[in-house]
Amino acid sequence: MAERDRSAGQNGAGSGAPDGADGGTDLRTVGVEEEFLLVDPHTGAAVPAVDLVMEQVPAELRGQVEREFQTSQIEIGSPPGLELSSIRHSLGVLRAALADAAERAGVRVLAIGTGPVDGPVPPVVDQPRFDRMVERFRLLVPGPGNNGMHVHVGVPDPETGVQVLNHVRPWLPTLQAVTANSPFAKGADTGYASWRSVEWERWPSVAPTPFLASHEHYERLIRQLIASGVMLDEGMLYWYARLSARYPTVEIRIGDVCPSVDDAVLVVALVRALVATAMTDIAAGRPAIRTDHHLLVAAHWRAAHDGLEGEGVDLTDGELRPAWELLEQLVDRVRPELEKHGDLDQVTDLLGGLRRHGSGAARQRAVFARTGRIVDVVADVARQTRG
Q: Where are the compositionally biased (Gly residues) regions (predicted)?
């Protein structure tokens, strides 16, 4: 939420490949940002400990760890790359270092969409832009901390990027269901697989990406939204997919932060393959699906409510289908790009693990069903976060 737009600098998807690809090939670079919650190790309540944790982060990693919107949040960013193995390594190193730093600071770090335990809302980080956001939007500030995952994929130019946004929008509810990882709030089951999604919708600039006629249309909408007052600046463009303001990437930002590195790597691979598939369709002159906005909103609501264990809206025909069936359709659609990038075998293995263990929301609910204690849910999420 801090929206520093680091997508292609030290931590993003565009550095090292200015045209969004590698050495003139059609392989796409990718990078990821993950936001985490800092909690009391005994109660699981969110704590304003970001400064204490930042002090404990090893000096060599501090360029990849940053404060977020609230003092109970902290963020990491992977360097960009072509190989999933490098993304996996970066996330593993950063998560382990962050978990160690949090323990030295007397807290825990959780890869979870929002805080599961009731408690005081931690203050916002002391920064002029954040102060202006609080002054304008007041009680829209979320509860314990709203933690997402943002995947950046390289594209050659803004006009192509806008077309990519049009092509990927019908598939984003399925990715949202895959990442659902916040079923609890205030110590109780919310009935949603992703309560973060519900909290996040309170901000007026959060929405599915509209169907865009051109890059000029994209920029005009941004100017109009800022003029309307629902955004302070371009950084508050909280569409589920958008262009980077500074670098040649599209950013897919629909998901809860994933509980484990395995989950994150799976989502990264699917997002990259989806963007690459869109670019193949664009080059072949195949049009994007013109999904009705209200049906798209319904599909995102259903993904937040049911997650991967329930049903979802098939945006090709508007019918309800098992969410796993929609995920299988997505994988089939992007399979050629998974093969081209060398990701298919790993994605197949990771999908098998996801089917065995369930989504992050399902895992949390399984722990609570066994013990009846939210603190046990917190402990299990902390274990998955560290890996």
A: 11-23
CA 202 to chain centre: 17
Structure tokens at 7: 């997508």
Question: Which residue stretches of 285-343 are H helix?
Answer: 293-306, 323-340
Measuring CA to CA, which residue among 275, 273, 278 is closest to residue 337? 273
Phi, psi dihedrals of residue 67, rounded to the nearest 5°: -70, 160
- Within 10 Å of residue 382's Cβ, how many Cβ atoms? 21
Q: Is 212:165 a contact under the CB 8 Å cutoff?
A: yes
pLDDT digits (tens, 9 = 90+) for 25-65: 589 999 999 999 999 999 999 999 999 999 999 999 999 99
Residue 182 predicted with pLDDT over 60: yes
Per-residue pLDDT reduced to its tens digit, 148-172: 999 999 999 999 999 999 999 999 9
Strands 238-239 vs 206-207: parallel, antiparallel or unpaired: parallel
C-alpha 167/C-alpha 285 separation (Å) is 12
CATH code of the region 117-377: 3.30.590.20
pLDDT over 70 at 14, yes or no:
no
